[in-house]
Amino acid sequence: MAVPKVAKNTRLPFQKTWTQKASTQKRIFLLLAVTPPFLGYLLFSLYPNILSVYYALLNWNGISEPVFVGFDNFVKMLHDQFVWRALYHNFLLLVAVVPLTIIISLFLAYLITYMPFRENAFLKVLFFFPNVLSTVVIALLWAFIYDGNYGLLNSLLRMFGINLDTFWLGQESTALWALVLPFVWGGVGLYVIIFSNAMLSIPKSLYESAILDGAGHMTLLFKITIPLLRPIIYVGVLFVSLGTIKGFETVLILTNGGPAGSTDVLGLYMFNLAFGETVHNYGYASAVGMLLFIILTGTKLIMDKFFPNSGVEY
C-alpha cells in the first residue's frame, strides 16, 4: 500500500522572518501614528467634556470651595429669561444663515462648474479666500463695513442717494440681522469648493441628454444637479446648522451680545457666565454648555430622521 506524500513547506526561513518583521514594524508604525492624536483627544476633548458634566452640578466661581447643588443649575436655566432670549436669537440666525449659505454656494458652484468662464480657477480661490482668514480678521473687516460714519455700506448707499447713516451694529433693530452676512460670507467659499467638486463627478452624458431634450440651466440644476448632490447638500446643511448654533466668536467681537442683549446667543451667554468681567459662574456656565450640547445632538438626530440624505442613482 502506497503511503501518500506530504508536501513539504518550501518557504525559506528568512522569508517567514522577513514577513513577521514587516508585520511587526507596520503595527509599531500604526501605534506611533495613532497614539499622539488619541491621547490629545482624551486630554483636550473627552476629559474636559466629562469634567464639564461634573461642574454643571456645582455652584463654583473657580476660586472658592465648590458647592454641590445637584440639578439646581438646570432648573434655574429653565426659568432664565436670558437663556430663552439667546435661544431665540440662535433660531433667527439659523433660519437666515443656513438657507442663504447653501443656496448661494450651490448657485456659485454651478456657475463656475458649468459656465464657460476662463477665470474659474481664480474664482474658486476668490470664493475660498474668507476661509483662510481668522475669525478676528473677518469680524474687524465687517466692523469697518458696518461703521456708521466711515463704513463701506453707508458709503455705497450714499452713492445711490440713500443717506441713512445707520450704525448697523449699534441699533437693536439692525444688529442681529447685520450678523447674518459675516456668517454667510465666512462659510460660502468652503461649500462652493465642495459642491463644485461634487458636480464634476456627475456624468456629462446626463446633461447632454437633457440639453438635447431642450432643458435649460434651471432645469439642469433642479432636475439633475441638486437631486444627485442630495447627500453632499445634507452634509453642508448639517455643518452650517451646527456651526451657526454653537458659533459665537464673530458675535463676541462685533457686538458682544449688545446692544441691550439684542444679539446675545447661547454660546456667548455661556462664555460670559464663565469668563465675564463681573460674573464667574463655572457651574451654571457648564449647565448652559450641556444645553448647547443637547441642542446640537438633537439637531443631528432630527435631520437624520426627517431629511433624507440618499442621493438619486443614475
Structure description:
This protein is mainly α. The longest helix is centred in the first third of the chain and has 43 residues, at 13-55. It is 69% helix and 1% strand. The chain has a single domain, classed as Orthogonal Bundle (MetI-like fold). It contains 14 helices and two strands, in the order αββααααααααααααα. A two-stranded antiparallel sheet has the order 1-2. A hairpin with a 7-residue loop joins strand 1 and strand 2.
Features:
1% strand; MetI-like fold; mainly alpha; 314 residues
Average residue-wise pLDDT: 87
Task: For the record, give the distance between the C-alpha atoms at the N and C termini, rounded to a whole number.
Answer: 65 Å
Question: What is the CATH superfamily?
Answer: MetI-like
Largest sheet: 2 strands, antiparallel
Going by helix content, strand content and strand pairing, the class is: mainly alpha
Poorly predicted runs are none
CATH class: Mainly Alpha
H/I helix tally: 14
SSE pattern, N- to C-terminal:
HEEHHHHHHHHHHHHH
Radius of gyration: 28 Å
Question: Percent range for helical residues?
Answer: 55-70%
In the CATH hierarchy, the architecture is: Orthogonal Bundle
Strand order of the largest sheet: 1-2
Tell me the domain tally.
1
Assess the beta-strand content as a share of residues: under 5%
Number of strands: 2
